[in-house]
Specification:
alpha+beta, 1 helix, Double Stranded RNA Binding Domain, 67 residues, 3 strands, elongated
Length: 67
């Protein structure tokens, strides 16, 4: 999956980084590399399903989709 991220210099130093396609997915880092690593982790957590979101007793089918 490819996502565009926006890096903005912070007033305190470092960078604030966000993924516009994922509302509320924001991170920061002291350097560009750190900010990119942190937003990658934030995106993974953002997209990770939360256990209990789908009750196991429901008649549902769960599949994975690579985009």
């Amino acid at each position: 999956m490819k996502l565009q991220v926006i890096l903005e210099p912070s007033e305190e130093g470092g960078y604030t980084v966000s993924a516009p396609a994922l509302p509320g997915c924001i991170s920061e880092g002291d350097s560009l590399d750190e900010a990119m690593a942190n937003i990658a982790e934030a995106i993974e957590l953002y997209l990770e399903p939360i256990e209990g979101d789908i009750e196991k007793n429901q008649n549902v089918i769960i599949r994975e989709l690579v985009v």
